[in-house]
């Protein structure tokens, strides 16, 4: 989807202060000491708050940075991963009410770890097709404390971290100009990827890479499709010198090297910026959290272009192309 006249105005990420380190995981028997050098994260963030509270804080910070009255919000797209029965019956509406977004259309999105990208896409579509929509907020939150297995159980390939992130979108200028956004799916992988229910206790203590290795070819093919089409929609050549960053999901070095980097055109592989060493995989929030880094990173000057890629088991992939305008 080629995008014109829509910007990401502001972004924010809220991370808990508590950390669970890989060294702790070794001591607790969750991680083999031999896996430490290749572990996907040095530490992961652990919340003591419900996911919706993290999400609310991320939304509040995003609107504060933009100096926008919450009552001006027209659309609120929210996605979360949690395992608590104590959450509100409809977190999007609860957060919208607590924000003071009194007239926003609130909805929840479920697309596994691609949920944050889906929330952004819904906001972009709403702004592009409904003239009454002036401001849209995309947000995500994750709380893996209720998992029926240790959050390091998929390490060294992956480790789960808690946190929330949000992005405010609108017309006109902002932190980024949205150039293109493409999503592709491959539901044929649903029964094999992951090989077990991703959040159900199994007889295996560890579930390496939760299906990335067995489905690497199909995953790479889907990612290659969204990258190729997003570049075309944005009118960019793969070797355009303005492209300075490619943000993959926060899935660690092993998964990135196996599933993401080979799917990229050769000129883009040197620009991969893998984050998550101190957070782990933030569920549906990787793309939104990576936008925060792209906004604040001084190595990305005004005019720089960044590609943000995310994936969700099942399987879905998205590529967002943005130009930094601040």
TrEMBL record:
<protein>
    <recommendedName>
        <fullName>3-oxoacyl-ACP synthase</fullName>
    </recommendedName>
</protein>
<dbReference type="InterPro" id="IPR016039">
    <property type="entry name" value="Thiolase-like"/>
</dbReference>
<dbReference type="GO" id="GO:0016746">
    <property type="term" value="F:acyltransferase activity"/>
</dbReference>
<dbReference type="GO" id="GO:0044550">
    <property type="term" value="P:secondary metabolite biosynthetic process"/>
</dbReference>
């Amino acid at each position: 989807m080629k995008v014109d006249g829509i910007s990401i105005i502001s972004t924010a990420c809220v991370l808990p202060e508590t950390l669970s380190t890989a060294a702790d995981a070794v001591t607790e028997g969750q991680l083999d000491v031999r896996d430490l050098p290749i572990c996907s994260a040095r530490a992961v963030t652990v919340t003591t708050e419900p996911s919706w509270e993290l999400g609310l804080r991320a939304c509040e910070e995003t609107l504060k940075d933009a100096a926008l009255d919450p009552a001006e919000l027209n659309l609120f797209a929210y996605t979360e991963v949690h395992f608590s029965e104590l959450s509100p019956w409809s977190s999007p509406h609860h957060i919208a009410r607590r924000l003071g977004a009194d007239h926003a259309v609130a909805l929840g999105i479920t697309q596994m770890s691609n949920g944050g990208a889906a929330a952004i896409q819904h906001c972009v579509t709403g702004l592009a097709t409904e003239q009454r929509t002036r401001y849209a907020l995309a947000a995500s939150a994750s709380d893996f404390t209720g998992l029926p297995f240790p959050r390091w159980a998929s390490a060294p390939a992956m480790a789960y971290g808690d946190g929330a992130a949000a992005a405010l979108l609108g017309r006109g200028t902002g932190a980024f100009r949205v150039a293109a956004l493409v999503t592709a799916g491959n539901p044929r992988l649903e029964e094999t990827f992951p090989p077990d229910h991703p959040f159900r206790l199994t007889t295996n203590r560890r579930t390496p890479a939760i299906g990335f290795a067995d489905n690497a070819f199909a995953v790479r093919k889907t990612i290659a499709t969204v990258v190729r089409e997003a570049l075309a929609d944005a009118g960019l050549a793969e070797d355009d010198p303005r492209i300075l960053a490619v943000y993959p999901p926060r899935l660690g070095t092993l998964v990135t090297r196996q599933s993401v980097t080979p799917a990229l055109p050769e000129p883009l592989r040197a620009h991969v910026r893998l984050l998550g060493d101190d957070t782990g995989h933030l569920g549906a929030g990787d793309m939104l959290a990576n936008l925060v880094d792209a906004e604040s990173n001084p190595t990305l000057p005004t005019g720089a272009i960044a590609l943000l890629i995310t994936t969700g088991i099942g399987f879905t992939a998205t590529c967002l192309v943005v130009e930094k305008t601040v």
